[in-house]
Amino acid sequence: MSIVTLFVDTSDEKVSSERRFDKSLTISQLKDKLEPITGIPYSTQKIDLYQGNTLQGPIDDDERMLGSYPVEDYMRIHVTDTNPHRVKNQYTDVSLVEKFELTEDEYQKRTDTVRAFKERNRLGRFSSEAAEQEKAIEQARKEAASNIKVGDRCEVLGDDYTAQRLGTVRFVGETKFQPGPWVGIQYDEPLGKNDGSVNGERYFTCPPKYGGFVRPTKVNVGDFPEDDFSMTDDELEEM
């Protein structure tokens, strides 16, 4: 199963969230999942794919799979409502209503919110089990990152933790696209997703499709010689 992490937003800016989707989803199935996220009915969704602010093109064939489009981690899906009759008026336009807004700090201090209820009752991500698990994962990532340095040769593990790709470490540290430590890899072959930059932020430089970012726990450093792809078959046989 291949999973891609995408940002989802809408034209009215009411929705902006990070979601994970299976690339094997058809666009029809994707629309079903986007409807409760965006509030836009399946039948009137127009989906566009962006890399940062650069339009990559429409996602418009209901029968195609999501993975058949050039989707990469941390790209953006922009959903537009094409229904011309869904017009706001003085009774439905919430922009005409005076909004009650709270800062994040003010929200955290309130005791009558869903978040406060979950915290009091230790539910969901506030449960002791979830907190301990998250703490253990974060500690493991930090420990793994401390043993990785720029210039190290490495192998990158897949989701099943078997070795899949060889490369060289080009970046170790925090990023803007997600919290926690990440390792930037320049792969030996064009098996990556970027050129060392994500959403317009550059972390290292390498040829397009040779760069990728993975969690430190999926990187093994060691003596992994780089394959010489320029050698002929005859030269390889002589070695």
From TrEMBL:
SMART domains: CAP_GLY
Cross-referenced InterPro entries: CAP-Gly_dom_sf, CAP-Gly_domain, TBCB_Ubl, Ubiquitin-like_dom, Ubiquitin-like_domsf
Domain Ubiquitin-like span(s) in chain numbering: 4-79
One Pfam family, short name: Ubiquitin_2
GO annotations of cellular component type: cell cortex; cytosol; microtubule plus-end; nucleus
Positions of the CAP-Gly domain: 173-215
Gene Ontology terms: biological process: cytoplasmic microtubule organization; post-chaperonin tubulin folding pathway; tubulin complex assembly
Keyword field: Chaperone, Cytoplasm
Keyword Protein biosynthesis (UniProt): no
Protein family per UniProt: Belongs to the TBCB family.
Family annotation (PANTHER family): DYNACTIN 1-RELATED MICROTUBULE-BINDING, TUBULIN-FOLDING COFACTOR B
UniProt name for this protein: Tubulin-folding cofactor B
High-level lineage: Eukaryota, Fungi, Fungi incertae sedis, Mucoromycota, Mucoromycotina
